[in-house]
Design brief:
Blueprint: E1 5-12, E2 23-26, H1 33-50, E3 55-57, E4 66-72, E5 82-87, E6 91-96, H2 99-112, E7 116-118, E8 121-123, E9 137-139, E10 145-150, H3 163-175, E11 180-185, H4 240-243, H5 248-268, E12 272-278, H6 286-302, E13 308-312, H7 317-320, H8 330-338, H9 348-371, E14 376-380, H10 394-400, E15 406-410, E16 431-434, H11 450-462, E17 467-468, E18 471-472, H12 479-490, H13 496-508, H14 513-525, H15 550-571, H16 579-603, H17 608-614, H18 616-626, H19 629-635
Parallel strand pairs: 2-3, 4-6, 10-11, 10-17, 10-18, 11-12, 12-13, 13-14, 14-15, 15-16, 16-17
Antiparallel strand pairs: 1-2, 1-4, 5-6, 5-9, 7-8
């Protein structure tokens, strides 16, 4: 085999006087786009660390130490495998077989230099690396697919993203060591709308605060509380595309263009992309086959950058099932042919439902073979072993479906230490576990689960999953769990305690980092909402509810005291970029959570306020309590 190599030289020299360049990035002519991305990303980040301008050039200056990024298509390395190692007299080489692995190696080097890349932004050390030579690193992820499934439908989700939000998200996914972004779309969302018989079914424009979303009522921006209206443009809040006026067709086109732009940017950055819709009809009906073909064909035409398309079973259908078709029908023939493979399901309705989705998978693969043969197909749905149970179908699907079709499932809605037992399939079947960073309810309080995720990711690997994703709506609020998943893929040997101390050090620096990380781990160990209590109903309207766990409330208060001490020490500097902001964010969550608990205790049904309205003596007691110091800060 002819061995072809491309070299990217990054020359680094120790900075002497302030005016002297600290490093230079050398990208020879002809370097692939992702390799040139590596050059410019390294130049930008190392320049920020060194407080110097870093140039990207075609040839190295003499006499400077060199970091050599070597793209060698002839070596036997994985698609995303790289080596960072010392070579020569004080130089460093990054070796990889693919341009993406070169780029990931560049981010791996930056992480070795102490940088952190998170959903809420970058955490950069206060100065340049103390040592030019990084430790020898062999980068090889334990999951081929690593990333996120940001879920549309609430207003704290991609529903309100603009172009810059999609781009920032894609950047942070890649820089953190992940490589995948996928989206599901409901039929009341715009992204899989299609032309059929002169109509545009299968989608509606994006929602804003002008619409009634699950658990909310329409609300204008000037009705937002606490002066928040000044942060939001326009009369209603939503994405720029959704707030613009136009016909339904114009709005659908604009919304789809927004997502296509975000996916195209992610793809150009080296991130794998996926989009899919729910399949609800009878795939053995010729009329439904025509509609499905039109929709799937238009999807890959509207989004030519897609690497994957997934077909979703609707939520709950795996448990409800569908009555089997007549045995003499086309569906009945499928039922007879596949009955042995689905025999463990017992229930005929559940059996036919599993077959129905599988037929869509079979038909979808055939359509893609003609319309977009390079696009892979994924079958997905809701539920693991403790909830909705779509993964129960995996063993049967594996027996009847093309091995090119990938299986995935939103696992149990409250994340468990183990993913479904049905992920333990033969190694020639690709499957992706999708646990939940958060669930539909209480999306304004901590849904602490990073410690559980530390077990979940290991279990998914032990069951042979080639992919690990996670569903979420918010971003910054699920950042610790995302950081753990990203880190685990490259460092599976790391313990939970070691992860949190590393995370803390990257966020606030070496002096206070261990204490900050330990405090975050203690908060996470408190579990859901930190303070306990029932919280809010999934997708429901707001109700007052409060904790009855005094020990947890005291632990959260104590964490707030520790964090204020840490903040005071960090403020003396020097500290990583964003350090004070990150500590302030956690303190703000604690203050808001404890303040809410105080008010909720008063206003909960049957609580002190209800009692005071019926009893003058209790009213006097309540007024005295409210005028005391315990509630002064909350009321202010």
């Amino acid at each position: 085999m002819c061995r072809r190599s491309t070299f990217l030289l990054l020359a680094l020299g120790l900075r002497g006087a302030a005016a002297a360049p600290w490093c230079q990035v050398i990208a020879p002519d002809g370097s692939p786009p992702l390799v040139r991305q590596a050059a410019y990303e390294l130049a930008a980040y190392l320049g920020r660390l060194a407080d110097a301008d870093i140039a990207v050039r075609n040839a190295p200056a003499k006499g400077l130490p060199v970091i050599l990024l070597r793209l060698d298509t002839g070596v036997k390395l994985g698609d995303e495998e790289y080596f960072i190692e010392p070579v020569g007299q004080g130089d460093v080489a990054i070796r990889a077989r693919t341009p993406l692995a070169v780029l990931e190696g560049a981010y791996g080097l930056l992480r070795a230099y102490g940088c952190g890349f998170y959903f809420d932004g970058d955490a950069l050390p206060a100065g340049r690396p103390q040592a030019f030579l990084a430790p020898s690193i062999h980068g090889r992820p334990v999951f081929a697919i690593r990333g996120s499934l940001p879920w549309y439908n609430f207003l704290d989700s991609p529903t309100t993203w603009d172009a810059q939000d999609f781009r920032f998200f894609a950047d942070q996914i890649l820089r953190s060591g992940q490589n995948f972004i996928g989206f599901h779309t409901y039929d009341y969302e715009p992204f899989a709308a299609y032309e059929f018989a002169g109509q545009h079914p299968g989608g509606e424009p994006l929602m804003t605060t002008a619409d009634r979303v699950w658990g909310t009522f329409p609300m204008k921006v000037d009705e937002f509380g606490f002066g928040a209206a000044r942060y939001f443009p326009g009369a209603w809040w939503g994405s720029d595309a959704a707030r613009a006026e136009g016909s339904r067709e114009q709005r659908l086109a604009r919304d789809k263009a927004l997502l296509a732009d975000g996916l195209a940017y992610a793809s150009a950055r080296g991130v794998k992309t996926c989009l899919g819709f729910e399949v609800t009809g009878d795939p053995t009906d010729p009329a439904e086959q025509r509609r499905f073909r039109a929709r799937l064909t238009q999807l890959v035409r509207d989004y030519p950058m897609l690497d994957y398309v997934w077909l979703w079973q609707s939520e709950g259908q795996s448990m409800q099932g569908v009555a089997p078709p007549p045995l003499r029908s086309q569906g009945g023939r499928v039922y007879r042919d596949w009955q042995a493979a689905f025999a463990t399901l017992k229930d005929p309705k559940r059996t036919w439902e599993g077959m129905r989705v599988a037929v869509y998978g079979e038909l979808g693969r055939q359509i893609l073979d003609g319309a977009a043969p390079g696009v892979k197909l994924v079958l997905s749905g809701w539920g693991g072993d403790h909830w909705l149970h779509v993964s129960d179908y995996f063993p049967a699907w594996d027996k009847v479906l093309d091995k090119r079709i990938i299986f995935a499932a939103l696992d149990d809605i409250r994340v468990h230490p183990q993913v479904s037992v049905n992920y333990a399939l033969p190694p020639d079947r690709e499957r992706w576990a999708i646990p939940w960073y958060e669930y539909d309810g209480d999306q304004w309080v901590p849904q602490a689960n990073t410690g559980i995720f530390a077990d979940t990711v290991r279990d998914a690997r032990e069951k042979g999953c080639q992919g690990l994703l996670a569903i979420h709506w918010r971003t910054k609020e699920v950042g610790e769990s995302q950081a753990l998943c990203a880190q685990y893929a490259w460092h599976p040997e790391e313990s939970l305690a070691a992860f949190y101390r590393d995370y803390g050090t990257r966020r606030v620096g070496a002096e206070q980092g261990p204490a900050f990380g330990d405090t975050l781990r203690e908060l996470d160990a408190l579990g859901y909402r930190w303070v306990g209590g029932p919280g809010q109903t999934e997708c429901g309207e707001f109700v007052w509810s409060c904790s009855t766990d005094a020990a947890k409330l005291a632990a959260v208060e104590a964490a707030g005291v520790k964090l204020r001490q840490i903040r005071a020490a960090v403020a003396k500097g020097p500290a990583p970029v964003g350090a004070l902001g990150r500590v302030d964010d956690v303190i703000a969550v604690i203050d808001r959570l404890l303040g809410y608990e105080q008010v909720a205790r008063l206003l909960a049904p049957g609580g002190p306020v209800d009692q005071a309205t019926a009893n003058p003596d209790k009213a006097k007691t309540l007024l005295a309590e409210l005028s005391g110091p315990a509630f002064g800060e909350v009321l202010d």
